[in-house]
Amino acid sequence: MEYQKLRDRMVENQLIPRGIKDPRVLDAMRRVPRHIFAGGHNLANAYDDMALPIGEGQTISQPYMVAIMTELLELKGTEKVLEIGTGSGYQGAVLGELAKDVYTIERIASLSDRAAAEYRTLGSDNIHVRTGDGTVGWPEEAPFDRIIITAASPQIPEPLMEQLAVNGILVIPVGSRYSQQLLKITKTANGFTEQYHTPCVFVPLIGKYGWEEE
Ligand code: SAM
Predict the structure, then answer these.
(1) Which residues does ligand 1 sit against, CB inside 6 Å?
(2) Disulfide-capable partner of 86 in 45, 106, 145, 163 (CB 3.0 to 4.6 Å)?
(3) Which strands, in side-by-side order, build the sheet including 164-175?
(4) Distance CA 34, CA 50 (A)
(5) pTM over 0.90, yes/no
(6) pLDDT tens, residue by residue, 165-180
(7) Does position 95 have pLDDT exceeding 80, yes or no?
């Protein structure tokens, strides 16, 4: 299969027509091998317009959702980014192309181990993986210029607001367990500004400052 062709088509058919404009985001998504992160059982449809199962009841997000969340972060290449919800590792790999350093936390060890192994294979040595509850953040590495939460939360976990740098941006799907809206928060010297974006559906963020495990 010609994966480069599938990636180019994904960008042309799924991202540009829906309004993704940042050329750095589009280029990164033309480069990052989504099929490697999606896993062997998803090879045939790794570039389809949908989220896919990655095991443990979790998902790799739809390409458009990865693109819009990344675009909302307004990355220039100098940032230190925290991601909560490593999952397959794909979103982290896209961030790794666009920021200086990425710190990513996953609560399910089999997933974080697999993502860390893919990063080693690909030589993505600016991506740092931790297993644990990401709702408490990564205090030893704070502050972060950008924070992205790729699981659904009832509210913004307080420690993440604290670990966001001034002038930093945080993107999170907030709402109920079953439907959410993307929220972009910008931290200023005087407080926070918020902007709501597209409706979305993510698996739940489970942890001290998220949902309880069912
Ligand atoms: N960013 C991922 C990717 O590119 O494949 C998709 C993430 S998937 C939609 C959400 C992930 O968040 C799941 O792997 C889930 O286990 C993880 N998660 C849920 N609650 C978490 C928490 N408190 N800390 C860290 N990870 C969490």
Answers:
(1) 58-61, 84-85, 87-88, 90-91, 105-108, 111, 133-135, 150-151, 202-203, 205-207, 210
(2) 106
(3) 127-131, 101-106, 80-84, 144-149, 164-175, 180-188, 191-200
(4) 12
(5) yes
(6) 999 999 999 999 999 9
(7) yes
